Recover the amino acids of this structure.
């Protein structure tokens, strides 16, 4: 638990650092009908620029992204990887070992991710937030890393795409783990365990944003041609027709 709290504090510090490196995030209207957005516009000129460049994703784009994020190849692979770790650490021990135990763990991890993603998208819809990840247009490792970590706790809102603190992004990981603990985990698990597991889910979401920022493979990559590019990230300007 202490390590998890320390990692969360590091994320918070990185988020503060991000405000010292204001930058613009950009996307295009390619395959997902979205455009670029400015990060925290601090002047009338910046606000006007955001108004001219940012286009909120359509309902069709939101639905496509939700299905990809919740049921696409990445959550399946992620659940398989997490299940392997849980199997190695015998968590929960009541689920035993072997193929049957691995199947239970993988199904549980996949369900946790699906509940978390559904909660995030549903609440984002209610709060009129944009769930896409917009890569930083800034340069340098620290500003880009800070932007990725800050995006874990923030989202775009409004026609100008201004950045706001995102309640859905903060709550969603814990919704999934709470559902698991009180839904299908052994009875000895409680809210403290759900909170601990939710912390790891939140860290995983932050890691996904970092991957989208630094490891995005581009619109002409093999993954993109196979329709396996992460749908959570907004497409870059190069993908515009």
């Amino acid at each position: 638990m202490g390590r998890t709290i320390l990692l969360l504090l590091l994320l918070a510090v990185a988020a503060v650092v991000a405000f010292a490196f204001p930058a613009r995030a950009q996307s295009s209207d390619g395959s997902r009908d979205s455009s670029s957005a400015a990060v925290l516009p601090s002047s009338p000129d910046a606000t006007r620029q955001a108004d001219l460049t940012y286009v909120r994703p359509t309902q069709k784009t939101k639905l496509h992204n939700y299905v990809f994020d919740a049921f696409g190849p990445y959550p399946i692979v992620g659940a398989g990887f997490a299940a392997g770790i849980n199997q190695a650490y015998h968590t929960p021990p009541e689920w035993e070992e072997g193929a049957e135990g691995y199947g239970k763990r993988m199904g549980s991890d996949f369900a946790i991710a699906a509940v978390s993603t559904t909660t995030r998208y549903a609440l984002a819809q209610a709060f009129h937030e944009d769930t896409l990840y917009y890569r930083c247009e800034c340069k340098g490792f620290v500003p880009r890393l800070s932007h990725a970590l800050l995006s874990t706790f923030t989202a775009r809102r409004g026609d100008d795409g201004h950045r706001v603190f995102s309640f859905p992004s903060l709550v969603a990981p814990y919704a999934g783990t709470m559902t698991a603990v009180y839904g299908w985990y052994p009875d000895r698990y409680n809210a403290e365990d759900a909170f601990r597991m939710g912390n790891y889910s939140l860290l995983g979401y932050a890691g996904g944003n970092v991957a989208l920022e630094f490891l995005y493979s581009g619109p002409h990559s093999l993954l993109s041609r196979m329709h396996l590019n992460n749908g959570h990230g907004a497409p870059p300007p190069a993908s515009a027709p």
About this structure: Residues 2-239 form one domain. Residues 180 and 237 are 40 Å apart (CA to CA).
